[in-house]
Amino acid sequence: xxxxxAQHADILITLVKIALLLFIVLTVNAYLTWxxxxxxxxMQSRWGPHRVGPHGLLQPLADGAKFLLKEDPTPAxxxxxxxxxxxxxALALALTSIAIIPFGPDPIRVLGHDIYLxxxxxxxxxxxxxAITALSVYGVALAGWSSNSKYPLLGGLRSSxxxxxxxxALTMSVVxxxxxxxxxxxxxxxxxxxxxxxxxxxxxxxFPQILGFLCFFIAAIAETNRVPFDxxxxxxxxVAGFHTEYASFKFAMFFIAEYTSMITVSCLCAILxxxxxxxPFPASWTFTHYLPSAILIPFGLWVVWDxxxxxxxxxxxxxxxxxxxxxxIGAVLIALPFINxxxxxxxxxxxxxxxFLFVYVWMRGTLPRFRYDQLMxxxxxxxxxxxxxxxxxxxxxxxxxxx
Amino acid sequence: MIPTxxxxxLSAVLFGxxxxxxxxxxxxxxxxxxxxxxxxxxxxxFVAFSQAxxxxxxxxxxxxxxxxxxxxxxxxxxxxxxxxxxRQSLNVERxxxxxx
Amino acid sequence: MNAPLIVFFVLAVxxxxxxxxxxxxxxxxxxxxSLIVVMVALAGLYLLMGAEFVxxxxxxxxxxxxxxxxxxxIMLLNAGSEERTNISKMAGWAxxxxxxxxxxxxxxxVARSTDRVQAAAQTGAPAPTKALAxxxxxxxxxxxxxxxFLILxxxxxxxxxxxxxxxxxxx
Lengths: 403, 100, 171
Fold this sequence. Notes:
The structure holds 3 protein chains of 3 kinds.
Chain A: H1 2-7, H2 9-43, H3 59-69, H4 80-96, E1 108-110, E2 113-115, H5 125-146, H6 150-181, H7 186-193, H8 210-223, H9 235-238, H10 248-273, H11 291-308, H12 313-335, H13 337-366, H14 372-401
Chain B: H1 4-24, H2 28-53, H3 57-87
Helix pairs in contact in B: 1-2, 2-3
Chain C: H1 3-24, H2 28-48, H3 52-76, H4 89-113, H5 129-138, H6 141-162
């Protein structure tokens, strides 16, 4: 038995990583929906979900139960194979893109095996992500067409035309970062930003590539069909766009695919332009390594204090429990320095991902949406030339510097 | 290591299937897709030889073939749209005005 | 029977099944989906051979742009299932075995002649994109510029072809 484990250790480790990552991503998806509803609600001066569980924290479970138990009708006249394939394809592609993202620099040493945080580190990491983005156009186009109805067809065609247009600007805007890093691999891109660790935040790619970052962020929002680029699936415009005719579980698959691609884009923004797992402080300021504890311990204590005076009994039990767990984690990080060092990288990366997710949700609550012709002309006439100009400027500066 | 002729046999089989699809299908778009299948089979042969000879010229040529296929697809689909507009059918047997 | 050989056979079977599905499907959209499956299988084979950049370009350009174009045109033209045609039975009965014979002949010719191809050492290492780029922009720069010109001409041609007829007075 142990012989079998030792021989096939690599495959088994990868399988365990995949299962763990899938579980984490799906949970983050579910709580991202909670986060979005809460944040948008507070921006609109109302509470979001706050009945189902303390502070609405069990709302995603209720939503998941609803999606699983609702009736799942198939409209008449649909092309059965394509109708069932489209949400599967969208979900599978969105979840595959998480496999390429590295979550931390140092491996965990277990029984002589190095377990890196991240399922795989491809030589062509960023190109593989573009390939997945290119294929995810099919999920939308086929969903719209196979529904045998005019609103989904229009929504699907519009949405896929939008995705194809902004895909070009997306790939062009990243070329500047690739020129600076000299490699397609995501780990190499972060390591290229870590060459001068005493620079901290100055060494990140955001400063040389501010234009590229803006182009990338805008194009990525258009790729994921989010506000302000969500005309093809907006409720007041095209009923629900390409997923009108999709009911409970298949709609949930599209939903999860959209939120997962949001998470992937946030990860990419953090990795490509904001230094990934690098701390913004210079490496010599080692006291900043206590920042995770400095955030977790007060937050845990606040959750405990808030939970003690909560209205429901369930909240008065669960919230202080959660709060004490968070405080204990913070204390453990101070007590055990080697775990603290290990957790620095993932902590900063997760912080940046959360920040970008917050910006995504903030835009959802704030901005009006583009009209379709404005959207297309913005993508082709402004974003693509600007990202091409960014490539030319970056290449010229690199060439002049190397003279 | 996988022998090169495995890849070449696969390439020949795919090319032959593309020829069969080209001859036996009536829909213009399907015929066009069989041309793309033949181009893909040729690409596979190029990359196989590039690996066999340990040179990168084959892969460079694959890039060119992909670019040419893209240009050909754009113009060809434009022509297909025109055929649909003029003959109201995508059946290649209906495009027979030049027949005696 | 090592792992690369198993992967090769799986991908080869997927590619051949996709190609056969392309021939046999009634509706052009299912043929398009089969062709996408073939292309992704071929991209996997390129990865197996170490040509990682070509594999990525195959999926991004071929699978993500050219086939999207095909799918769009099929949707816009509302191409339905193929109608039954009066192809002569004789052509069907004689043609298919002959086509398969052609395929077999090609494959046999290839199998017999490539014993000498095994000359160079196959390192099995992935091809570095930098070397590919150097080759493309130094030795092959003239065809490269020509292909960019070709794409420009193709774009113009496609737009002119697919335009609606303008009024006669514009001519």
